[in-house]
Amino acid sequence: MFNTFTLMDDINLHYRFLNWRRRIREIREVRAVRYQERYKRMLKNGDTLSYQGNSDEVGCYVAPRPLSKGNCYFEVTIMDTGVRGTIAVGLVPQHYKLDHQPGWLPHSIAYHADDGKLYNGNPVGQQFGPKCNRGDRIGCGIYADTSDAGLVTVFFTKNGKEVGSVVVPVAPDGLFPAIGMHSLGEEVRLDLQAEWGSEEEDSVMMVDSHEDEWARLYDVRVSGTLLEYVGKGKSIMDVGLAQARQPLTTRSHYFEVEIVDPGEKCYIALGLARRDYPKNRHPGWSRGSVAYHADDGKIFHGSGVGDQFGPRCFEGDIMGCGIMFPRDYVLDYEGKNITANQGRVENLLYLNDEDEEEGDDPEQEHEGRKVMVFFTRNGKIIGRREVVVPAGGFYPTIGMLSSGEKVKVDLHPLSG
Protein backbone atom coordinates (compact mmCIF):
# COMPACT_ATOMS: atom_id res chain seq x y z
CA MET A 1 0.00 0.00 0.00
CA PHE A 2 2.81 2.38 0.85
CA ASN A 3 4.62 1.63 -2.44
CA THR A 4 1.43 2.21 -4.46
CA PHE A 5 0.91 5.69 -2.99
CA THR A 6 4.55 6.54 -3.56
CA LEU A 7 4.30 5.53 -7.22
CA MET A 8 1.11 7.59 -7.69
CA ASP A 9 2.75 10.61 -6.07
CA ASP A 10 5.71 10.32 -8.46
CA ILE A 11 3.39 10.10 -11.46
CA ASN A 12 1.37 13.12 -10.32
CA LEU A 13 4.54 15.11 -9.72
CA HIS A 14 5.82 14.17 -13.16
CA TYR A 15 2.61 15.35 -14.86
CA ARG A 16 2.56 18.50 -12.76
CA PHE A 17 6.12 19.21 -13.89
CA LEU A 18 5.21 18.63 -17.56
CA ASN A 19 2.18 20.87 -17.21
CA TRP A 20 4.32 23.57 -15.57
CA ARG A 21 6.80 23.43 -18.45
CA ARG A 22 3.96 23.69 -20.99
CA ARG A 23 2.51 26.73 -19.24
CA ILE A 24 5.93 28.42 -19.11
CA ARG A 25 6.33 27.80 -22.87
CA GLU A 26 2.88 29.26 -23.56
CA ILE A 27 3.62 32.33 -21.45
CA ARG A 28 6.87 32.87 -23.35
CA GLU A 29 5.06 32.51 -26.66
CA VAL A 30 2.43 35.02 -25.57
CA ARG A 31 5.12 37.45 -24.44
CA ALA A 32 6.99 36.98 -27.74
CA VAL A 33 3.82 37.87 -29.63
CA ARG A 34 3.05 40.74 -27.29
CA TYR A 35 6.47 42.33 -27.66
CA GLN A 36 6.68 42.12 -31.42
CA GLU A 37 6.78 45.21 -33.60
CA ARG A 38 4.03 45.54 -36.19
CA TYR A 39 4.07 47.41 -39.47
CA LYS A 40 2.23 47.51 -42.77
CA ARG A 41 3.11 49.09 -46.13
CA MET A 42 6.53 49.95 -44.78
CA LEU A 43 10.03 48.63 -45.31
CA LYS A 44 12.18 48.43 -42.18
CA ASN A 45 15.95 48.40 -42.60
CA GLY A 46 17.67 48.67 -39.25
CA ASP A 47 16.36 51.88 -37.69
CA THR A 48 15.10 53.26 -41.03
CA LEU A 49 11.44 53.08 -42.06
CA SER A 50 10.32 53.86 -45.62
CA TYR A 51 6.83 53.96 -47.12
CA GLN A 52 6.01 51.09 -49.51
CA GLY A 53 2.40 51.83 -50.46
CA ASN A 54 0.84 53.51 -53.50
CA SER A 55 -0.02 56.81 -51.76
CA ASP A 56 -3.71 55.81 -51.57
CA GLU A 57 -3.25 53.70 -48.45
CA VAL A 58 -1.70 54.51 -45.09
CA GLY A 59 1.40 52.73 -43.88
CA CYS A 60 1.84 52.41 -40.13
CA TYR A 61 4.49 51.15 -37.71
CA VAL A 62 3.87 50.26 -34.03
CA ALA A 63 6.82 49.63 -31.69
CA PRO A 64 7.06 46.37 -29.71
CA ARG A 65 6.91 47.98 -26.26
CA PRO A 66 4.91 50.84 -24.75
CA LEU A 67 6.46 53.94 -23.25
CA SER A 68 7.15 53.55 -19.55
CA LYS A 69 8.77 55.39 -16.67
CA GLY A 70 12.15 53.94 -17.62
CA ASN A 71 11.74 54.58 -21.33
CA CYS A 72 9.42 57.56 -21.73
CA TYR A 73 10.52 59.24 -24.97
CA PHE A 74 11.38 58.48 -28.60
CA GLU A 75 12.37 60.48 -31.68
CA VAL A 76 11.99 60.30 -35.44
CA THR A 77 14.29 62.07 -37.90
CA ILE A 78 12.71 62.87 -41.27
CA MET A 79 15.12 61.59 -43.92
CA ASP A 80 12.83 62.29 -46.87
CA THR A 81 9.39 63.96 -47.01
CA GLY A 82 8.51 62.18 -50.25
CA VAL A 83 5.66 63.52 -52.35
CA ARG A 84 3.51 65.06 -49.62
CA GLY A 85 5.37 64.76 -46.32
CA THR A 86 2.37 63.09 -44.65
CA ILE A 87 4.40 61.70 -41.75
CA ALA A 88 2.81 61.24 -38.32
CA VAL A 89 4.53 60.57 -35.01
CA GLY A 90 2.62 59.60 -31.89
CA LEU A 91 1.27 56.97 -29.52
CA VAL A 92 -1.36 54.27 -30.09
CA PRO A 93 -2.84 51.18 -28.34
CA GLN A 94 -1.02 47.90 -28.90
CA HIS A 95 -3.44 46.49 -31.47
CA TYR A 96 -3.96 49.70 -33.43
CA LYS A 97 -5.22 49.23 -37.01
CA LEU A 98 -2.25 49.61 -39.33
CA ASP A 99 -4.22 51.13 -42.21
CA HIS A 100 -4.92 54.34 -40.24
CA GLN A 101 -2.62 57.23 -39.39
CA PRO A 102 -1.73 57.52 -35.69
CA GLY A 103 -4.15 59.95 -34.08
CA TRP A 104 -7.10 59.15 -36.33
CA LEU A 105 -8.64 56.41 -34.18
CA PRO A 106 -9.76 56.52 -30.52
CA HIS A 107 -7.11 56.20 -27.78
CA SER A 108 -4.35 57.40 -30.15
CA ILE A 109 -2.60 60.74 -30.49
CA ALA A 110 -0.09 62.08 -33.03
CA TYR A 111 1.69 65.18 -34.33
CA HIS A 112 1.52 65.38 -38.15
CA ALA A 113 4.49 66.83 -40.04
CA ASP A 114 2.68 68.01 -43.18
CA ASP A 115 0.27 70.42 -41.48
CA GLY A 116 1.63 70.81 -37.93
CA LYS A 117 -1.67 69.65 -36.49
CA LEU A 118 -2.38 67.43 -33.49
CA TYR A 119 -4.74 64.50 -34.07
CA ASN A 120 -6.24 63.19 -30.85
CA GLY A 121 -8.45 60.20 -31.58
CA ASN A 122 -10.08 62.06 -34.45
CA PRO A 123 -9.42 62.31 -38.24
CA VAL A 124 -9.88 66.08 -37.89
CA GLY A 125 -6.81 67.73 -36.41
CA GLN A 126 -6.27 70.92 -34.44
CA GLN A 127 -3.49 73.43 -35.05
CA PHE A 128 -0.68 72.55 -32.69
CA GLY A 129 2.82 73.44 -33.90
CA PRO A 130 5.04 74.21 -36.89
CA LYS A 131 5.23 72.01 -39.96
CA CYS A 132 8.22 69.68 -40.17
CA ASN A 133 10.52 69.11 -43.11
CA ARG A 134 13.46 66.99 -44.17
CA GLY A 135 16.15 66.88 -41.48
CA ASP A 136 13.77 67.82 -38.65
CA ARG A 137 13.49 65.64 -35.55
CA ILE A 138 10.03 64.97 -34.11
CA GLY A 139 9.94 63.63 -30.57
CA CYS A 140 7.12 62.22 -28.47
CA GLY A 141 7.11 61.33 -24.80
CA ILE A 142 5.13 61.03 -21.60
CA TYR A 143 5.59 62.67 -18.23
CA ALA A 144 5.50 59.42 -16.27
CA ASP A 145 5.07 61.18 -12.93
CA THR A 146 1.80 62.74 -14.15
CA SER A 147 -0.02 59.41 -14.53
CA ASP A 148 -3.17 59.53 -12.47
CA ALA A 149 -6.49 57.68 -12.70
CA GLY A 150 -5.78 56.31 -16.14
CA LEU A 151 -4.57 59.63 -17.56
CA VAL A 152 -1.08 60.74 -18.68
CA THR A 153 0.47 63.91 -20.11
CA VAL A 154 1.86 63.38 -23.62
CA PHE A 155 4.26 65.96 -25.07
CA PHE A 156 5.81 66.51 -28.50
CA THR A 157 9.08 68.13 -29.54
CA LYS A 158 10.62 69.50 -32.71
CA ASN A 159 14.42 69.49 -32.92
CA GLY A 160 14.69 69.06 -29.15
CA LYS A 161 12.32 71.90 -28.20
CA GLU A 162 8.91 71.16 -26.70
CA VAL A 163 6.04 72.10 -29.00
CA GLY A 164 3.17 71.36 -26.60
CA SER A 165 1.47 68.76 -24.42
CA VAL A 166 -1.97 67.26 -23.82
CA VAL A 167 -3.54 64.96 -21.23
CA VAL A 168 -4.91 61.71 -22.68
CA PRO A 169 -6.37 58.44 -21.34
CA VAL A 170 -4.04 55.46 -21.18
CA ALA A 171 -5.04 52.18 -22.85
CA PRO A 172 -4.91 49.07 -20.60
CA ASP A 173 -1.77 47.80 -22.34
CA GLY A 174 -0.11 51.22 -22.43
CA LEU A 175 0.74 53.65 -25.23
CA PHE A 176 3.02 52.38 -27.99
CA PRO A 177 5.26 54.57 -30.20
CA ALA A 178 3.85 54.74 -33.73
CA ILE A 179 4.80 56.27 -37.08
CA GLY A 180 2.45 56.77 -40.02
CA MET A 181 3.22 57.57 -43.67
CA HIS A 182 1.01 58.19 -46.64
CA SER A 183 2.98 59.15 -49.79
CA LEU A 184 5.73 57.79 -52.02
CA GLY A 185 9.32 58.47 -51.01
CA GLU A 186 8.69 59.16 -47.33
CA GLU A 187 11.46 57.87 -45.08
CA VAL A 188 12.37 58.33 -41.41
CA ARG A 189 14.98 57.17 -38.94
CA LEU A 190 13.60 55.88 -35.63
CA ASP A 191 15.31 56.16 -32.25
CA LEU A 192 13.34 54.35 -29.56
CA GLN A 193 16.10 54.97 -27.00
CA ALA A 194 16.29 58.75 -27.41
CA GLU A 195 16.52 60.90 -24.31
CA TRP A 196 15.01 64.28 -23.55
CA GLY A 197 15.51 66.27 -20.35
CA SER A 198 13.07 68.26 -18.30
CA GLU A 199 12.22 71.87 -19.08
CA GLU A 200 14.76 73.09 -16.54
CA GLU A 201 17.49 70.90 -18.01
CA ASP A 202 16.48 71.91 -21.52
CA SER A 203 16.69 75.61 -20.71
CA VAL A 204 20.21 75.11 -19.41
CA MET A 205 21.15 73.12 -22.48
CA MET A 206 19.82 75.79 -24.81
CA VAL A 207 22.32 78.31 -23.49
CA ASP A 208 25.11 76.39 -25.22
CA SER A 209 23.11 74.83 -28.05
CA HIS A 210 24.48 77.28 -30.67
CA GLU A 211 21.48 76.44 -32.86
CA ASP A 212 20.59 80.14 -33.12
CA GLU A 213 23.90 80.76 -34.88
CA TRP A 214 22.61 78.95 -37.96
CA ALA A 215 20.17 80.53 -40.41
CA ARG A 216 19.81 77.50 -42.68
CA LEU A 217 20.13 73.80 -41.90
CA TYR A 218 19.34 71.13 -44.48
CA ASP A 219 19.94 67.45 -43.66
CA VAL A 220 22.22 68.60 -40.83
CA ARG A 221 21.55 68.11 -37.11
CA VAL A 222 22.96 70.57 -34.56
CA SER A 223 24.07 69.47 -31.11
CA GLY A 224 26.02 72.22 -29.41
CA THR A 225 28.96 72.99 -31.68
CA LEU A 226 28.65 69.61 -33.41
CA LEU A 227 27.09 69.32 -36.87
CA GLU A 228 26.03 65.86 -38.03
CA TYR A 229 24.98 64.86 -41.54
CA VAL A 230 21.56 63.13 -41.52
CA GLY A 231 20.83 62.98 -45.25
CA LYS A 232 20.70 59.95 -47.54
CA GLY A 233 24.14 60.42 -49.09
CA LYS A 234 23.13 58.48 -52.20
CA SER A 235 23.58 61.16 -54.90
CA ILE A 236 25.10 64.61 -55.37
CA MET A 237 21.62 66.06 -54.77
CA ASP A 238 21.67 64.81 -51.16
CA VAL A 239 24.00 67.56 -49.91
CA GLY A 240 23.61 68.54 -46.27
CA LEU A 241 24.11 72.29 -45.85
CA ALA A 242 24.65 74.51 -42.81
CA GLN A 243 24.87 78.26 -43.28
CA ALA A 244 25.60 80.72 -40.49
CA ARG A 245 23.15 83.46 -39.58
CA GLN A 246 25.74 86.23 -39.85
CA PRO A 247 28.24 86.94 -42.66
CA LEU A 248 31.95 87.39 -42.09
CA THR A 249 32.83 90.98 -41.23
CA THR A 250 35.90 92.99 -40.32
CA ARG A 251 35.20 92.15 -36.68
CA SER A 252 34.60 88.44 -37.25
CA HIS A 253 36.51 87.44 -40.34
CA TYR A 254 37.50 83.78 -39.76
CA PHE A 255 35.96 80.45 -38.69
CA GLU A 256 37.12 76.85 -38.27
CA VAL A 257 35.81 73.30 -38.58
CA GLU A 258 37.29 70.21 -36.93
CA ILE A 259 36.57 66.87 -38.60
CA VAL A 260 35.23 64.69 -35.78
CA ASP A 261 34.13 61.82 -38.04
CA PRO A 262 34.92 61.68 -41.79
CA GLY A 263 32.03 59.26 -42.38
CA GLU A 264 32.08 57.00 -45.41
CA LYS A 265 33.68 59.38 -47.92
CA CYS A 266 34.71 62.56 -46.05
CA TYR A 267 32.75 64.67 -48.53
CA ILE A 268 33.11 67.68 -46.23
CA ALA A 269 33.39 71.20 -47.64
CA LEU A 270 34.20 74.43 -45.83
CA GLY A 271 33.74 77.84 -47.39
CA LEU A 272 31.72 80.96 -47.99
CA ALA A 273 28.50 81.43 -49.92
CA ARG A 274 25.84 84.00 -50.70
CA ARG A 275 22.80 84.12 -48.45
CA ASP A 276 20.42 82.51 -50.99
CA TYR A 277 22.81 79.70 -51.93
CA PRO A 278 21.05 76.53 -53.26
CA LYS A 279 20.47 74.01 -50.47
CA ASN A 280 21.35 70.96 -52.60
CA ARG A 281 24.73 72.22 -53.84
CA HIS A 282 28.05 71.79 -52.10
CA PRO A 283 29.75 75.09 -51.19
CA GLY A 284 31.90 76.13 -54.14
CA TRP A 285 29.84 74.38 -56.80
CA SER A 286 27.53 77.28 -57.67
CA ARG A 287 27.85 81.01 -58.31
CA GLY A 288 28.54 83.20 -55.31
CA SER A 289 30.56 80.64 -53.36
CA VAL A 290 34.09 79.41 -52.76
CA ALA A 291 35.12 76.35 -50.73
CA TYR A 292 37.94 73.99 -49.80
CA HIS A 293 36.93 70.30 -50.03
CA ALA A 294 38.40 67.81 -47.56
CA ASP A 295 38.10 64.66 -49.68
CA ASP A 296 40.34 65.79 -52.56
CA GLY A 297 42.07 68.95 -51.30
CA LYS A 298 40.63 71.00 -54.15
CA ILE A 299 39.21 74.51 -54.17
CA PHE A 300 35.88 75.07 -55.88
CA HIS A 301 34.95 78.60 -56.94
CA GLY A 302 31.49 78.86 -58.46
CA SER A 303 32.04 75.70 -60.47
CA GLY A 304 31.56 71.96 -60.19
CA VAL A 305 35.15 71.49 -61.36
CA GLY A 306 37.78 72.15 -58.71
CA ASP A 307 41.44 73.15 -58.86
CA GLN A 308 44.18 71.43 -56.91
CA PHE A 309 44.74 73.62 -53.88
CA GLY A 310 45.99 71.89 -50.75
CA PRO A 311 46.31 68.57 -48.92
CA ARG A 312 43.39 66.29 -48.22
CA CYS A 313 41.92 66.46 -44.71
CA PHE A 314 41.12 63.60 -42.37
CA GLU A 315 39.72 62.88 -38.92
CA GLY A 316 41.13 65.32 -36.37
CA ASP A 317 42.20 67.92 -38.93
CA ILE A 318 41.04 71.51 -38.46
CA MET A 319 40.05 73.41 -41.59
CA GLY A 320 39.73 77.19 -41.46
CA CYS A 321 38.39 79.89 -43.76
CA GLY A 322 38.64 83.67 -43.57
CA ILE A 323 38.70 86.92 -45.48
CA MET A 324 41.59 89.39 -45.78
CA PHE A 325 39.56 92.60 -45.85
CA PRO A 326 41.04 95.81 -47.33
CA ARG A 327 41.77 98.52 -44.77
CA ASP A 328 38.85 100.70 -45.86
CA TYR A 329 36.27 97.91 -46.06
CA VAL A 330 33.03 98.42 -44.13
CA LEU A 331 29.88 96.29 -44.04
CA ASP A 332 26.81 98.44 -43.41
CA TYR A 333 23.79 97.39 -41.34
CA GLU A 334 21.82 96.27 -44.38
CA GLY A 335 24.51 93.85 -45.41
CA LYS A 336 25.69 95.86 -48.45
CA ASN A 337 29.37 96.14 -49.17
CA ILE A 338 30.66 99.72 -49.02
CA THR A 339 33.99 101.46 -48.54
CA ALA A 340 34.38 104.61 -46.53
CA ASN A 341 36.96 106.53 -44.56
CA GLN A 342 34.39 107.53 -41.97
CA GLY A 343 33.52 105.03 -39.26
CA ARG A 344 36.21 102.62 -40.40
CA VAL A 345 36.70 99.44 -38.42
CA GLU A 346 40.27 98.16 -38.29
CA ASN A 347 40.82 94.49 -39.07
CA LEU A 348 43.48 92.37 -37.43
CA LEU A 349 44.17 90.57 -40.69
CA TYR A 350 44.11 92.73 -43.81
CA LEU A 351 45.66 93.00 -47.24
CA ASN A 352 48.97 94.75 -47.71
CA ASP A 353 48.80 97.94 -49.71
CA GLU A 354 50.33 96.28 -52.75
CA ASP A 355 47.57 93.63 -52.67
CA GLU A 356 44.73 96.16 -52.92
CA GLU A 357 43.07 96.79 -56.22
CA GLU A 358 43.92 100.00 -58.03
CA GLY A 359 41.28 101.76 -60.08
CA ASP A 360 37.59 101.02 -60.43
CA ASP A 361 36.15 98.13 -62.37
CA PRO A 362 32.54 98.81 -63.48
CA GLU A 363 31.64 95.13 -63.37
CA GLN A 364 33.27 94.76 -59.99
CA GLU A 365 31.40 97.78 -58.62
CA HIS A 366 28.11 96.31 -59.87
CA GLU A 367 28.67 92.85 -58.39
CA GLY A 368 30.55 93.75 -55.23
CA ARG A 369 34.07 94.40 -54.07
CA LYS A 370 36.89 91.91 -54.43
CA VAL A 371 38.50 90.45 -51.33
CA MET A 372 41.06 87.76 -50.67
CA VAL A 373 39.62 84.56 -49.18
CA PHE A 374 42.14 82.29 -47.48
CA PHE A 375 42.01 78.74 -46.15
CA THR A 376 43.97 77.03 -43.39
CA ARG A 377 44.71 73.48 -42.32
CA ASN A 378 45.71 72.86 -38.72
CA GLY A 379 46.54 76.53 -38.20
CA LYS A 380 48.66 77.05 -41.31
CA ILE A 381 47.52 79.02 -44.37
CA ILE A 382 47.54 76.70 -47.37
CA GLY A 383 46.36 79.17 -50.00
CA ARG A 384 44.10 82.03 -50.97
CA ARG A 385 41.77 83.04 -53.77
CA GLU A 386 40.57 86.49 -54.90
CA VAL A 387 36.79 86.58 -55.13
CA VAL A 388 33.96 89.09 -55.51
CA VAL A 389 31.77 89.49 -52.44
CA PRO A 390 28.09 89.00 -53.35
CA ALA A 391 25.43 91.50 -52.32
CA GLY A 392 24.69 90.92 -48.66
CA GLY A 393 28.09 89.45 -47.84
CA PHE A 394 29.74 86.05 -47.56
CA TYR A 395 28.24 83.60 -45.07
CA PRO A 396 30.19 80.74 -43.45
CA THR A 397 28.84 77.60 -45.10
CA ILE A 398 29.56 73.92 -44.49
CA GLY A 399 28.56 71.05 -46.74
CA MET A 400 28.48 67.29 -46.09
CA LEU A 401 27.47 64.42 -48.34
CA SER A 402 28.24 60.97 -46.92
CA SER A 403 26.80 58.95 -44.06
CA GLY A 404 28.34 59.41 -40.62
CA GLU A 405 30.06 62.75 -41.22
CA LYS A 406 30.41 64.96 -38.14
CA VAL A 407 32.25 68.24 -37.64
CA LYS A 408 32.77 70.60 -34.73
CA VAL A 409 32.39 74.26 -35.68
CA ASP A 410 33.86 77.40 -34.11
CA LEU A 411 32.43 80.48 -35.81
CA HIS A 412 34.48 82.83 -33.64
CA PRO A 413 37.88 81.17 -32.92
CA LEU A 414 39.73 84.52 -32.72
CA SER A 415 37.37 86.17 -30.23
CA GLY A 416 37.85 86.26 -26.49
From TrEMBL:
Q: Which residues form the B30.2/SPRY domain?
A: 10-197, 189-416
* Family matches, as InterPro entries: B30.2/SPRY (IPR001870), B30.2/SPRY_sf (IPR043136), ConA-like_dom_sf (IPR013320), SPRY_dom (IPR003877), SPRYD3_SPRY (IPR035783), Ubq-SigPath_Reg (IPR050618)
According to the lineage, what is the superkingdom?
Answer: Eukaryota
Protein name in the entry: SPRY domain containing 3
Which species does the entry assign this protein to? Cyprinus carpio carpio
